[in-house]
C-alpha cells in the first residue's frame, strides 16, 4: 500500500513522529533487480536527489554508485534513523532537513528518486524546480511498493486493512484518495513502467510493526486502538508462521520519466 487511505485528508505530519520513524526501520527493502534496472537507465553518476527520503532507503541503496547523494526529508526523526542505518558507510550522503517545497534543489542532478513521498508534495511548486535541476540525460524515478503483495494470507491481510480503514472513518480507495495518488501525473512526462518482485522472510512482529510506519496506522493517531489492530493482523499471520516468521513476495513498481516545468494540458498523456 504505497500511501494509506487517511493520506487523502492529512499532510503527512505523522512522519515527523519518532515512533513512526522507529517503525519505518522494519519496512522491507525494494527488490535488488529494481536498483539494477534504475542504474542501467541512468547514464550519469554525479548527483542523486532522494526527495522525501524518509530514512534514505533509496539513497543508501544507490549511494555507492554516485559521487554525491542529497537525502531530503522534513522529518528529523527519519533523518536520524537514516544516519543510524547507514552507520557512516556512505560519507557522500548529505542529510538535509527540509520539505520538498522549501529544499534548495540546485543543478546538476543526474537522477531524482521519490518513493511514496510523491503523494505528499505540491507538484505545482516542486516539479518545476526538479525540471530545471535535472541534466539533459537525467531522469526522475518514482518507486512504490514495499509491503506484502503475494502470500497465502494476503487476502485475509488486505481484508483486515480495509476493515480498519472503515472503522477509522475512511473510505477504501475513495475519490479523495485516488485524486491524491494521481495529483503529480500532469507534471510528469512518463517514459516507462516496470514491476520487480522479491521473496522476503520477516518476523510476524516486525511485519506488524512496519504497518505503524504508515500514516493511517501511526500509534499517535490510533491511540488505544493500535493494540486491537495488531491483534487482528497477528491472527491472520500466526497460522502461517514458522519459527515466528512468515514468507511473502514484495512487488515494487518503477516508473521513470522527467518532471515538467508546466503541467500537461488536460487530456494529454
Query: What is the typical, i.e. mean, pLDDT?
Result: 92
Overall strand count: 8
The best one-word shape is: globular
Count up the helices.
10
Strand content: 15-25%
Radius of gyration: 18 Å
- Derived from helix and strand composition plus strand pairing, the structural class reads alpha/beta
- First and last CA, distance: 24 Å
Helix content: 25-40%
Low-confidence sequence ranges: 1-10
Order of helices and strands: HHEHEHEEHEEHHEHHHE
Q: Characterize the biggest β-sheet.
A: 8 strands, mixed
Topology (SSEs and partners):
Layout lengths: L17 H7 L7 H10 L5 E5 L5 H6 L5 E6 L2 H11 L6 E5 L11 E6 L8 H11 E11 L3 E3 L3 H14 L7 H8 L5 E16 H8 L7 H4 L2 H13 L7 E15 L10
Parallel strand pairs: 1-2, 1-4, 2-3, 4-5
Antiparallel strand pairs: 5-8, 6-8, 7-8
Key words describing this protein structure:
eight-stranded mixed sheet, alpha/beta, 10 helices, 34% helix, 269 residues
